[in-house]
Amino acid sequence: MEKDKQTLKRTMSSRHIMMMALGGAIGAGLFKGSSTAIDEAGPSVLLAYLLGGIILLFIMQGLAEMAVRNKNARTFRDLVQQSLGSYAAYFLDWIYWKMWVLNIAAEAVVAAIFIQYWLPECPIWILALIISIVVTVVNMLSVKLFAETEYWLALIKITVIVIFILCGILLLFFSFGNHTAPGLSHLTNHGGFFPHGAGGVITAMLVVIYSYGGTEIIGVTLAETKNPEKVIPKAVRSTLTRIVAFYLLPFFIIVSLIPWNQVNSVPESPFVIVFKMIGIPGADHIMNAVILLAIISSMNSGLYGSSRVLFTQASDGRVPKVFSKLSKKKVPVYAILTCTSFLYVGVLISLFAGSQTFNYLMGSLGYTVLFIWLIIGFAHLKSRKHAAEQPAYYVKWFPYTTWFAVLALLAILIGVIATTSIVITCITAAIYLLITAAYLVKGRRQ
Protein backbone atom coordinates (compact mmCIF):
# COMPACT_ATOMS: atom_id res chain seq x y z
CA MET A 1 0.00 0.00 0.00
CA GLU A 2 1.12 3.55 -0.71
CA LYS A 3 1.00 4.59 2.95
CA ASP A 4 3.46 1.78 3.77
CA LYS A 5 5.88 2.81 1.05
CA GLN A 6 9.25 3.61 2.56
CA THR A 7 10.92 6.86 1.60
CA LEU A 8 14.49 8.07 1.86
CA LYS A 9 15.33 10.73 4.43
CA ARG A 10 16.39 14.21 3.29
CA THR A 11 19.63 14.66 5.26
CA MET A 12 22.14 15.94 2.69
CA SER A 13 23.01 19.62 2.45
CA SER A 14 24.55 21.73 -0.31
CA ARG A 15 28.13 21.11 0.84
CA HIS A 16 27.52 17.34 0.85
CA ILE A 17 26.10 17.38 -2.69
CA MET A 18 28.92 19.55 -4.05
CA MET A 19 31.64 17.36 -2.54
CA MET A 20 29.89 14.17 -3.68
CA ALA A 21 29.92 15.38 -7.27
CA LEU A 22 33.61 16.23 -6.92
CA GLY A 23 34.26 12.87 -5.25
CA GLY A 24 32.64 11.06 -8.16
CA ALA A 25 34.54 12.99 -10.81
CA ILE A 26 38.01 13.42 -9.28
CA GLY A 27 39.15 9.82 -9.02
CA ALA A 28 41.01 7.25 -11.08
CA GLY A 29 40.11 9.17 -14.26
CA LEU A 30 42.32 12.06 -13.15
CA PHE A 31 45.14 10.25 -11.36
CA LYS A 32 45.33 7.05 -13.43
CA GLY A 33 43.80 8.20 -16.72
CA SER A 34 45.94 11.35 -17.02
CA SER A 35 48.91 9.54 -18.59
CA THR A 36 46.68 7.90 -21.22
CA ALA A 37 45.00 11.18 -22.21
CA ILE A 38 48.35 13.01 -22.53
CA ASP A 39 49.85 10.17 -24.57
CA GLU A 40 46.94 10.34 -27.03
CA ALA A 41 46.69 14.12 -27.49
CA GLY A 42 49.93 15.68 -26.22
CA PRO A 43 49.60 19.29 -25.03
CA SER A 44 46.31 19.62 -26.93
CA VAL A 45 44.76 17.50 -24.15
CA LEU A 46 44.05 20.91 -22.59
CA LEU A 47 41.56 21.65 -25.38
CA ALA A 48 39.95 18.25 -24.88
CA TYR A 49 39.36 18.93 -21.18
CA LEU A 50 38.17 22.47 -21.87
CA LEU A 51 35.63 21.23 -24.44
CA GLY A 52 34.54 18.47 -22.05
CA GLY A 53 34.08 21.04 -19.30
CA ILE A 54 31.90 23.30 -21.48
CA ILE A 55 29.73 20.34 -22.54
CA LEU A 56 29.43 19.25 -18.90
CA LEU A 57 28.39 22.77 -17.88
CA PHE A 58 25.54 22.89 -20.43
CA ILE A 59 24.31 19.37 -19.61
CA MET A 60 24.36 19.98 -15.86
CA GLN A 61 22.51 23.28 -16.26
CA GLY A 62 19.74 21.39 -18.01
CA LEU A 63 19.74 18.76 -15.26
CA ALA A 64 19.43 21.48 -12.60
CA GLU A 65 16.52 23.13 -14.42
CA MET A 66 14.63 19.84 -14.69
CA ALA A 67 15.31 19.10 -11.00
CA VAL A 68 13.88 22.48 -9.96
CA ARG A 69 10.82 21.97 -12.15
CA ASN A 70 10.16 18.44 -10.84
CA LYS A 71 10.28 18.93 -7.07
CA ASN A 72 9.04 15.38 -6.36
CA ALA A 73 11.68 13.71 -8.53
CA ARG A 74 13.83 11.10 -6.79
CA THR A 75 16.34 10.17 -9.50
CA PHE A 76 17.10 10.42 -13.24
CA ARG A 77 14.09 8.33 -14.22
CA ASP A 78 11.64 10.89 -12.87
CA LEU A 79 13.38 13.74 -14.72
CA VAL A 80 13.62 11.93 -18.06
CA GLN A 81 10.42 9.88 -18.26
CA GLN A 82 8.06 12.83 -18.66
CA SER A 83 10.03 14.17 -21.63
CA LEU A 84 11.35 11.09 -23.42
CA GLY A 85 9.07 8.26 -22.29
CA SER A 86 9.51 5.01 -20.40
CA TYR A 87 12.19 3.37 -22.59
CA ALA A 88 14.65 6.30 -22.29
CA ALA A 89 14.06 6.40 -18.52
CA TYR A 90 14.52 2.63 -18.19
CA PHE A 91 17.66 2.64 -20.37
CA LEU A 92 19.19 5.59 -18.47
CA ASP A 93 18.56 4.01 -15.08
CA TRP A 94 20.21 0.75 -16.02
CA ILE A 95 23.24 2.09 -17.92
CA TYR A 96 23.85 4.46 -15.01
CA TRP A 97 23.64 1.54 -12.59
CA LYS A 98 25.93 -0.50 -14.85
CA MET A 99 28.41 2.37 -14.99
CA TRP A 100 28.81 2.59 -11.24
CA VAL A 101 28.92 -1.14 -10.41
CA LEU A 102 31.63 -1.62 -13.05
CA ASN A 103 33.46 1.47 -11.83
CA ILE A 104 33.53 0.48 -8.17
CA ALA A 105 34.65 -3.04 -9.14
CA ALA A 106 37.56 -1.67 -11.18
CA GLU A 107 38.53 0.90 -8.57
CA ALA A 108 38.52 -1.64 -5.72
CA VAL A 109 41.32 -3.52 -7.48
CA VAL A 110 43.19 -0.30 -8.34
CA ALA A 111 42.94 0.82 -4.70
CA ALA A 112 44.31 -2.56 -3.58
CA ILE A 113 47.29 -2.14 -5.93
CA PHE A 114 48.09 1.25 -4.34
CA ILE A 115 47.91 -0.24 -0.83
CA GLN A 116 50.18 -3.05 -1.96
CA TYR A 117 52.83 -0.36 -2.51
CA TRP A 118 53.22 -0.38 1.30
CA LEU A 119 52.28 -4.04 1.87
CA PRO A 120 53.93 -5.93 -1.00
CA GLU A 121 53.51 -9.31 0.68
CA CYS A 122 49.73 -8.99 1.10
CA PRO A 123 47.62 -10.51 -1.75
CA ILE A 124 45.55 -8.05 -3.78
CA TRP A 125 42.30 -9.92 -3.18
CA ILE A 126 42.61 -9.53 0.60
CA LEU A 127 43.26 -5.78 0.31
CA ALA A 128 40.38 -5.38 -2.16
CA LEU A 129 38.12 -7.31 0.22
CA ILE A 130 39.03 -5.02 3.15
CA ILE A 131 38.41 -1.89 1.06
CA SER A 132 35.06 -3.25 -0.14
CA ILE A 133 33.93 -4.01 3.42
CA VAL A 134 34.91 -0.53 4.68
CA VAL A 135 33.06 1.25 1.83
CA THR A 136 30.01 -0.99 2.37
CA VAL A 137 29.88 -0.31 6.12
CA VAL A 138 30.16 3.47 5.63
CA ASN A 139 27.27 3.41 3.15
CA MET A 140 25.09 1.19 5.35
CA LEU A 141 25.38 3.02 8.66
CA SER A 142 23.57 6.24 7.73
CA VAL A 143 23.23 8.69 4.84
CA LYS A 144 24.62 11.50 6.97
CA LEU A 145 27.73 9.48 7.91
CA PHE A 146 28.25 8.60 4.24
CA ALA A 147 27.89 12.26 3.24
CA GLU A 148 30.30 13.44 5.94
CA THR A 149 32.86 10.77 5.03
CA GLU A 150 32.63 11.69 1.36
CA TYR A 151 32.90 15.40 2.21
CA TRP A 152 36.20 14.97 4.08
CA LEU A 153 37.68 12.51 1.58
CA ALA A 154 36.93 14.92 -1.27
CA LEU A 155 38.29 17.86 0.73
CA ILE A 156 41.61 16.08 1.36
CA LYS A 157 42.26 15.30 -2.31
CA ILE A 158 41.16 18.77 -3.41
CA THR A 159 43.59 20.32 -0.92
CA VAL A 160 46.45 18.23 -2.34
CA ILE A 161 45.51 19.20 -5.91
CA VAL A 162 45.63 22.89 -4.89
CA ILE A 163 49.11 22.33 -3.38
CA PHE A 164 50.10 20.54 -6.60
CA ILE A 165 48.96 23.53 -8.69
CA LEU A 166 50.88 26.02 -6.52
CA CYS A 167 54.04 23.88 -6.60
CA GLY A 168 53.69 23.44 -10.35
CA ILE A 169 53.44 27.17 -11.01
CA LEU A 170 56.56 27.68 -8.87
CA LEU A 171 58.48 25.06 -10.88
CA LEU A 172 57.29 26.47 -14.20
CA PHE A 173 58.41 30.05 -13.76
CA PHE A 174 61.13 30.08 -11.06
CA SER A 175 64.60 28.51 -11.20
CA PHE A 176 66.32 27.38 -8.02
CA GLY A 177 69.13 24.98 -7.08
CA ASN A 178 69.59 22.47 -9.89
CA HIS A 179 66.13 23.24 -11.32
CA THR A 180 65.75 25.42 -14.41
CA ALA A 181 62.27 26.81 -15.03
CA PRO A 182 61.05 25.55 -18.44
CA GLY A 183 58.31 28.16 -18.83
CA LEU A 184 55.93 27.15 -21.61
CA SER A 185 58.51 25.67 -24.00
CA HIS A 186 57.35 22.06 -23.59
CA LEU A 187 53.93 22.96 -25.02
CA THR A 188 55.38 23.30 -28.53
CA ASN A 189 58.91 21.79 -28.53
CA HIS A 190 58.03 18.11 -29.02
CA GLY A 191 56.00 17.86 -32.22
CA GLY A 192 53.96 21.01 -31.63
CA PHE A 193 50.79 21.64 -29.63
CA PHE A 194 48.92 19.06 -31.77
CA PRO A 195 51.50 16.24 -32.14
CA HIS A 196 48.80 13.77 -33.27
CA GLY A 197 46.60 16.32 -35.04
CA ALA A 198 42.90 16.77 -34.37
CA GLY A 199 42.53 12.99 -34.24
CA GLY A 200 44.53 12.93 -31.02
CA VAL A 201 42.08 15.31 -29.37
CA ILE A 202 39.12 13.18 -30.47
CA THR A 203 40.77 9.98 -29.22
CA ALA A 204 41.48 11.60 -25.85
CA MET A 205 37.83 12.66 -25.52
CA LEU A 206 36.83 9.16 -24.35
CA VAL A 207 39.21 9.49 -21.38
CA VAL A 208 38.00 13.07 -20.83
CA ILE A 209 34.33 12.10 -20.76
CA TYR A 210 35.11 9.15 -18.48
CA SER A 211 37.08 11.47 -16.17
CA TYR A 212 34.24 14.00 -15.88
CA GLY A 213 31.66 11.25 -15.48
CA GLY A 214 30.28 11.06 -11.96
CA THR A 215 29.33 14.71 -11.68
CA GLU A 216 25.80 13.84 -12.79
CA ILE A 217 25.38 11.85 -9.54
CA ILE A 218 23.67 15.05 -8.36
CA GLY A 219 20.64 13.71 -10.26
CA VAL A 220 20.50 10.64 -7.99
CA THR A 221 20.55 12.63 -4.72
CA LEU A 222 17.18 14.34 -5.25
CA ALA A 223 15.23 12.20 -2.76
CA GLU A 224 17.77 12.76 0.03
CA THR A 225 18.52 16.45 -0.46
CA LYS A 226 17.07 19.22 1.66
CA ASN A 227 15.31 21.84 -0.52
CA PRO A 228 16.55 20.30 -3.82
CA GLU A 229 15.06 23.15 -5.88
CA LYS A 230 17.55 25.53 -4.21
CA VAL A 231 20.44 23.20 -3.42
CA ILE A 232 20.84 21.49 -6.83
CA PRO A 233 21.36 24.67 -8.95
CA LYS A 234 23.82 26.00 -6.36
CA ALA A 235 25.71 22.71 -6.29
CA VAL A 236 25.84 22.61 -10.12
CA ARG A 237 27.29 26.12 -10.34
CA SER A 238 29.94 25.64 -7.66
CA THR A 239 30.88 22.10 -8.66
CA LEU A 240 31.47 22.86 -12.35
CA THR A 241 33.90 25.71 -11.77
CA ARG A 242 35.90 23.54 -9.41
CA ILE A 243 35.97 20.48 -11.66
CA VAL A 244 37.20 22.42 -14.68
CA ALA A 245 39.83 24.13 -12.51
CA PHE A 246 40.97 20.86 -10.93
CA TYR A 247 41.42 19.23 -14.33
CA LEU A 248 42.60 22.03 -16.61
CA LEU A 249 45.19 23.54 -14.27
CA PRO A 250 46.85 20.24 -13.24
CA PHE A 251 47.03 19.10 -16.88
CA PHE A 252 48.46 22.47 -17.93
CA ILE A 253 51.20 22.08 -15.30
CA ILE A 254 51.95 18.46 -16.24
CA VAL A 255 52.34 19.05 -20.00
CA SER A 256 54.29 22.27 -19.37
CA LEU A 257 56.74 20.73 -16.87
CA ILE A 258 57.21 17.30 -18.44
CA PRO A 259 57.63 16.63 -22.19
CA TRP A 260 54.34 14.96 -23.15
CA ASN A 261 56.10 12.06 -24.89
CA GLN A 262 57.86 11.12 -21.63
CA VAL A 263 54.79 11.07 -19.38
CA ASN A 264 53.70 7.53 -20.27
CA SER A 265 57.25 6.09 -20.35
CA VAL A 266 57.63 6.02 -16.55
CA PRO A 267 55.58 3.86 -14.16
CA GLU A 268 54.91 6.73 -11.75
CA SER A 269 51.90 9.03 -11.91
CA PRO A 270 52.66 12.48 -13.43
CA PHE A 271 51.55 13.91 -10.09
CA VAL A 272 54.32 12.00 -8.27
CA ILE A 273 56.93 13.20 -10.79
CA VAL A 274 56.00 16.86 -10.20
CA PHE A 275 56.11 16.48 -6.40
CA LYS A 276 59.54 14.88 -6.68
CA MET A 277 60.75 17.79 -8.82
CA ILE A 278 59.90 20.25 -6.06
CA GLY A 279 62.02 18.16 -3.67
CA ILE A 280 59.29 17.15 -1.23
CA PRO A 281 60.55 14.24 0.94
CA GLY A 282 58.49 11.08 0.52
CA ALA A 283 56.57 12.51 -2.46
CA ASP A 284 55.78 9.04 -3.75
CA HIS A 285 54.20 8.04 -0.43
CA ILE A 286 52.23 11.29 -0.18
CA MET A 287 50.77 10.96 -3.65
CA ASN A 288 50.16 7.24 -3.24
CA ALA A 289 48.04 8.01 -0.17
CA VAL A 290 46.16 10.82 -1.93
CA ILE A 291 45.42 8.70 -4.99
CA LEU A 292 44.21 5.91 -2.72
CA LEU A 293 41.85 8.32 -0.91
CA ALA A 294 40.64 9.65 -4.27
CA ILE A 295 39.77 6.18 -5.49
CA ILE A 296 38.01 5.19 -2.25
CA SER A 297 36.08 8.48 -2.41
CA SER A 298 34.98 7.69 -5.97
CA MET A 299 33.97 4.16 -4.89
CA ASN A 300 31.97 5.69 -2.05
CA SER A 301 30.02 7.88 -4.48
CA GLY A 302 29.59 5.00 -6.91
CA LEU A 303 28.09 2.65 -4.35
CA TYR A 304 25.72 5.41 -3.26
CA GLY A 305 24.58 6.14 -6.83
CA SER A 306 24.08 2.52 -7.91
CA SER A 307 22.21 1.55 -4.73
CA ARG A 308 19.79 4.50 -5.03
CA VAL A 309 18.97 3.62 -8.65
CA LEU A 310 18.20 0.04 -7.53
CA PHE A 311 16.11 1.36 -4.62
CA THR A 312 13.91 3.54 -6.84
CA GLN A 313 13.50 0.70 -9.34
CA ALA A 314 12.23 -1.51 -6.48
CA SER A 315 10.00 1.25 -5.10
CA ASP A 316 8.30 1.47 -8.49
CA GLY A 317 7.89 -2.31 -8.74
CA ARG A 318 10.38 -2.80 -11.57
CA VAL A 319 12.64 -5.13 -9.55
CA PRO A 320 11.86 -7.20 -6.42
CA LYS A 321 10.50 -5.14 -3.52
CA VAL A 322 13.20 -6.39 -1.17
CA PHE A 323 15.57 -3.78 -2.65
CA SER A 324 13.29 -0.98 -1.43
CA LYS A 325 13.49 -2.00 2.24
CA LEU A 326 15.15 0.60 4.46
CA SER A 327 16.96 0.27 7.76
CA LYS A 328 15.94 2.26 10.85
CA LYS A 329 18.32 4.99 9.66
CA LYS A 330 16.58 5.11 6.25
CA VAL A 331 19.37 3.35 4.36
CA PRO A 332 18.50 0.90 1.51
CA VAL A 333 20.48 -2.00 3.01
CA TYR A 334 19.62 -4.75 0.50
CA ALA A 335 20.22 -2.47 -2.48
CA ILE A 336 23.65 -1.56 -1.09
CA LEU A 337 24.56 -5.20 -0.39
CA THR A 338 23.53 -6.22 -3.91
CA CYS A 339 25.65 -3.51 -5.52
CA THR A 340 28.52 -4.40 -3.19
CA SER A 341 28.43 -8.00 -4.43
CA PHE A 342 29.70 -6.75 -7.80
CA LEU A 343 32.84 -5.56 -6.03
CA TYR A 344 33.79 -9.16 -5.32
CA VAL A 345 32.83 -10.35 -8.80
CA GLY A 346 34.91 -7.49 -10.18
CA VAL A 347 37.89 -8.50 -8.07
CA LEU A 348 37.85 -12.03 -9.53
CA ILE A 349 37.43 -10.81 -13.13
CA SER A 350 40.14 -8.19 -12.75
CA LEU A 351 42.64 -10.66 -11.32
CA PHE A 352 42.12 -12.97 -14.31
CA ALA A 353 42.00 -10.17 -16.92
CA GLY A 354 45.29 -8.64 -15.80
CA SER A 355 46.59 -5.10 -16.18
CA GLN A 356 44.33 -4.23 -19.15
CA THR A 357 41.19 -4.43 -16.99
CA PHE A 358 41.16 -0.73 -16.11
CA ASN A 359 41.63 0.37 -19.75
CA TYR A 360 38.83 -1.88 -21.00
CA LEU A 361 36.45 -0.76 -18.26
CA MET A 362 37.39 2.89 -18.79
CA GLY A 363 36.50 2.57 -22.48
CA SER A 364 33.10 1.02 -21.75
CA LEU A 365 32.40 3.53 -18.99
CA GLY A 366 33.33 6.41 -21.31
CA TYR A 367 30.66 5.25 -23.76
CA THR A 368 28.15 5.05 -20.92
CA VAL A 369 28.84 8.60 -19.71
CA LEU A 370 28.38 9.83 -23.30
CA PHE A 371 24.95 8.20 -23.53
CA ILE A 372 23.91 9.42 -20.07
CA TRP A 373 24.75 13.01 -21.00
CA LEU A 374 23.01 12.67 -24.37
CA ILE A 375 19.79 11.42 -22.76
CA ILE A 376 19.85 14.25 -20.19
CA GLY A 377 20.43 16.74 -23.02
CA PHE A 378 17.55 15.43 -25.16
CA ALA A 379 15.27 15.33 -22.10
CA HIS A 380 16.05 18.98 -21.36
CA LEU A 381 15.33 19.99 -24.96
CA LYS A 382 11.83 18.50 -24.67
CA SER A 383 11.18 19.33 -21.01
CA ARG A 384 9.79 22.83 -21.54
CA LYS A 385 6.97 21.47 -23.69
CA HIS A 386 5.48 19.99 -20.52
CA ALA A 387 6.18 23.02 -18.31
CA ALA A 388 3.25 25.08 -17.05
CA GLU A 389 5.46 27.97 -15.94
CA GLN A 390 9.10 29.08 -15.82
CA PRO A 391 10.86 27.71 -12.71
CA ALA A 392 12.96 29.81 -10.34
CA TYR A 393 16.13 28.45 -11.98
CA TYR A 394 16.27 28.10 -15.76
CA VAL A 395 18.87 28.03 -18.55
CA LYS A 396 18.92 31.52 -20.05
CA TRP A 397 20.43 30.54 -23.41
CA PHE A 398 18.06 27.61 -23.99
CA PRO A 399 17.95 25.80 -26.40
CA TYR A 400 21.27 26.91 -27.93
CA THR A 401 23.56 25.72 -25.12
CA THR A 402 21.84 22.36 -24.86
CA TRP A 403 21.87 21.83 -28.62
CA PHE A 404 25.59 22.68 -28.68
CA ALA A 405 26.23 20.05 -26.00
CA VAL A 406 24.11 17.39 -27.73
CA LEU A 407 25.66 17.95 -31.18
CA ALA A 408 29.17 17.99 -29.68
CA LEU A 409 28.47 14.72 -27.85
CA LEU A 410 27.17 13.10 -31.05
CA ALA A 411 30.31 14.21 -32.92
CA ILE A 412 32.50 12.86 -30.12
CA LEU A 413 30.56 9.58 -30.18
CA ILE A 414 31.24 9.15 -33.91
CA GLY A 415 34.91 9.95 -33.37
CA VAL A 416 35.19 7.58 -30.43
CA ILE A 417 33.57 4.70 -32.36
CA ALA A 418 36.10 5.27 -35.17
CA THR A 419 39.13 5.33 -32.87
CA THR A 420 38.28 2.94 -30.00
CA SER A 421 39.10 -0.76 -29.80
CA ILE A 422 36.42 -2.86 -31.51
CA VAL A 423 36.39 -5.16 -28.46
CA ILE A 424 35.35 -2.32 -26.13
CA THR A 425 32.71 -1.11 -28.58
CA CYS A 426 31.22 -4.58 -29.09
CA ILE A 427 31.10 -5.39 -25.35
CA THR A 428 29.38 -2.06 -24.64
CA ALA A 429 26.91 -2.56 -27.51
CA ALA A 430 26.08 -6.05 -26.22
CA ILE A 431 25.30 -4.67 -22.75
CA TYR A 432 23.03 -1.99 -24.24
CA LEU A 433 21.22 -4.56 -26.38
CA LEU A 434 20.69 -6.71 -23.29
CA ILE A 435 19.13 -3.76 -21.42
CA THR A 436 16.90 -3.01 -24.42
CA ALA A 437 15.82 -6.66 -24.67
CA ALA A 438 14.99 -6.69 -20.95
CA TYR A 439 12.80 -3.61 -21.46
CA LEU A 440 10.98 -5.18 -24.41
CA VAL A 441 10.34 -8.38 -22.43
CA LYS A 442 9.54 -6.93 -19.04
CA GLY A 443 10.01 -3.18 -18.61
CA ARG A 444 7.29 -2.14 -21.06
CA ARG A 445 4.63 -3.96 -19.08
CA GLN A 446 5.36 -1.99 -15.91
From TrEMBL:
Gene label: yvbW
Key words, A-Z: Amino-acid transport, Cell membrane, Membrane, Transmembrane, Transmembrane helix, Transport
Keyword Transport (UniProt): yes
Signal peptide from the UniProt entry: none
GO cellular component, one term: plasma membrane
UniProt name for this protein: Amino acid permease
Coiled-coil segments on the chain, per record: none
Keyword Lipid metabolism recorded: no
Bilayer disposition of the protein: Multi-pass membrane protein
One of the GO BP terms on file: transmembrane transport
Domain Amino acid permease/ SLC12A: 16-422
Chief location category: membrane
Segments traversing the membrane: 46-68, 100-119, 125-147, 154-177, 197-222, 243-260, 286-311, 331-354, 360-381, 393-416, 422-441
Cellular location(s): Cell membrane
InterPro entries: AA-permease/SLC12A_dom
